[in-house]
Protein: ParB-like nuclease family protein
Organism: Kitasatospora viridis
Amino acid sequence: MRPVELIEIDTLQPGDSPRFREVDEEHVRRLAESEADLPPILVHRSSMRVIDGAHRLSAARRKGERTIAAEFFDGTDAAAYILGVQANVAHGLPLSLAERKAAARRIVELRPELADRAVARTCGLAASTVGGIRREVVGEGARAAARVGQDGRLRPVDGGEGRRRAVAVIRASPDASLREIAQAAGVSLGTAHDIRARLDRGEDPLRGAATPVVPPAGQSAAPAIAPSGVSGVSPVVARAVAAVPRIGAGPGPRPARAARPAKAEPFAGLESLRRDPSLRFTDHGRALLVWLHRRLVVVGEADRELDQIPAHLLPVVAELAQECADSWHRLSVELQCRARQTG
């Protein structure tokens, strides 16, 4: 929690708002007429720009206040903008879909290394929507080798090369341990476990990777090396890794990635909740919106965070996921029953 301070209103500067219209006069009027204690605004200390709370500030001015309660944020301009988007998505007057898309575009421009899912979480969009925005911003051909995820860790955008190396290791040395496979191929233990399980089931271990395991006829195979510092890998495993072609090796063009069908916006019902005055203008309503925003998470099959789960903990995480699913199902049934009783 940041400390709350009373600051002079005249010292504040307009913020870099994600809204197309910075102030909604009708919303300001409602806040000014409200007798409830409004939350403190958020201010960028170095510039004194308002990050979150422009309507609360306008309401205070309308009431003739000279000071306002505020929390300070110390960080870069880019970080302040992203924080402002997060705050506006989570509570207060809701951002429109167009405003959230424009904010995502701005964040991709400010922080191109952020993963699509991290930007999507910030802006309340689907990761596929952010991916389309990124292609518009940087072009189809431009692609970073790695991006920063929601947890702040840097990960490769395309894990196909590591998976191909792991496949070669498993096929050349079926008795190799998961740790040895992971070290030789430069993948996580969870990924090594997933690849071996897929091979055992006869499934595609690459999960739709853009390039095949075996190079096209006439294409030379460039050596692929394990990450530096890896030790304890058998010669058989090392030779298997070296035999796998690296992404982009040889003169042949890289096959195009199959187009994915467009996905509907996740949790579209949240938009109607954000518009409802009974939630927007009450403390318990805003608390509910924040509670939902923090707990509704889109989990896709390709979430890289899931690749980092150690193999021996996969059953534990699976059980936790099942417990979460059961809890949400019970809540859904209970709320539907309450809706029928009150309807």
Strands lie at 4-8, 41-44, 49-52, 67-73, 146-148, 154-156. The mean pLDDT is 76. The chain has 15 helices and six strands. Residues 145 and 158 are 7 Å apart (CA to CA).
